[in-house]
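Sanity check

After download, print the first record. It should look like this:
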Amino acid sequence: MPSRRTSENTPTTHSGEQTTDAHCSATGLAPQYDLHRYPSPKGEITIPTRQHQQIVERWFEDLFTRADLSAVDELVSADFVAYGTGGDGQSIQTRGPDAFREWLRWYISSFTDREWTVHDVISEGDKVVARYSGWATYRGGLLEIPSASQRVRESGILIYRIEGGKVAAIWSEMSDLQVVMQLGAFPVPGRQEE
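Expected structure tokens:
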């Protein structure tokens, strides 16, 4: 059963208990959020369209949790473009559903046991913004960094452009540097090398 947010914006379980990352780690449960209502800074309620909510839910559940590669055709348009992190936002990382499926195949083999939390969903017009975080187990394949089955945390913000009920474009800002640092491939500032 989905979780909901309290007035303090703290995730709760279906029974009304407040959850934390520690609670979720201890119980093996990932918190889920009510994607129907998000307080705005002025206290008003912003309601993303149901179609936008479903796309974000399926993006994380079908593609990035269950690794259902067949869902790519249901979720992305034939002219899909994924823009990479940083810069002017125009650096094309992937073009078309087949290239995205290949990238996703690499990702789900490199990072397993994925658990995601969508913290916020905001939509206006044909754009949807999702702020998320999650955990995965690194199995190798990223920048030739060896795997020791490290558990890493990722966070980011995705901006989707929806056209005809599918994702036509996505812009990603992710914590890639922090992931590489968690894998020990880049020194963490302030940590003494042994």
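If your output differs, re-run the checksum step. Summary of this record's structure: The chain is about 25% helix and 35% strand.
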